[in-house]
Amino acid sequence: MRLLLVAAVLLTGLVAPVSRAQAAQTRHDAIINGVRLTYWTSRPIAPTDVPVVFLHGGPGYNSYSFRMTAGKALEARYPMVYLDERGSGESERPWRGDYALATQVEDIEGLRRQLGVKRMVLAGHSFGGTLAVEYAQTHPQRVARLILIDAAVDLPGALESWMHTLASQFPAAYAAAERSDAGKALRAVAPGDTCALAHARLAFVGAGMATLPDGHAFHDRQQFHVMAAKQEQERLDAQSGLRNTGEIGAALMAPESNFICYSVRHPERLDMPTLVLVGAHDGAVGVAPQRALAARLPHATLVVLPGSAHFTYQEEPDAFLKAVNGFMQGH
């Protein structure tokens, strides 16, 4: 199952993709927190720099499509770093299968030490937003600014958006789910039990998707405002030669992890300037959870882009860059 597909999608008029031969980024491989992590830098990082570190989503995707498109535009202003998270892209799959959020947070801290900088700007997309938030809560003194791009900050809330997508776009599948055992289980959840509600919503959507000829159609409606974007995404993925193995998603969705119940636990620790950016049509993480989080943060700027779904930085690149640059300049 694709929990939160995080991949860059290009449309007509977007930042032009750059081939590997043209790319100026430098690849680095380093043993960090017990695994070989691969990352790229746009230029040599000095100890006095405050680089923008991009964390991709998936979980289990890679940084390639972002750094070949939106990242190239950001490099003109900021020192950029792109991490392929453990088990993702060109980084190593840990033989112990350790994909715990706390472990991945320490991967990011290890990367900071490897870069030799005191502070970073963390920019996380979807699941990368989860990691950015978790790192910022754990090491707030190391985060100069936080950029959350269509971030997975409230999975029970996101699953409510999934149910809305099913009801509005696939009403027959929704009706079938209501009649199923999953529908009965959802109606039986005790009020206020957010974790049980998340599990029940996931099972409900799964029951509805099982009636569809192509389950990918459901996720496509969540993630793409303009469906033609899929073709460019597939081209970029083919160009990268990389695939999501599903290993991380399976680990995070295992019963013992309870990741499906995730929400931001300590918003009071996120006192750094924070940009919360989301597409108005994002059905993957939902707009309401982004608004709710921004309202709880002392120094948050909320930007909702009207013509985007889950890929704001690709579907509305000019507006995306304007929002990011304005935030970075303190506007």
Automatic annotation (TrEMBL):
This chain's protein is named Alpha/beta hydrolase
Cleaved signal peptide residues:
1-23
Q: Where is the AB hydrolase-1 domain?
A: 51-317
Lineage start: Bacteria, Pseudomonadati, Pseudomonadota, Gammaproteobacteria, Lysobacterales
Keyword check for Signal:
yes
InterPro entries according to UniProt:
AB_hydrolase_1, AB_hydrolase_fold, AB_hydrolase_sf, Peptidase_S33
Q: Which family does it belong to?
A: Belongs to the peptidase S33 family.
User: Which keywords label this protein?
Assistant: Hydrolase, Signal
Is Hydrolase a UniProt keyword of this protein? Answer: yes
- Which GO MF terms does the UniProt record name? hydrolase activity
Tell me the Pfam families matching this sequence: Abhydrolase_1
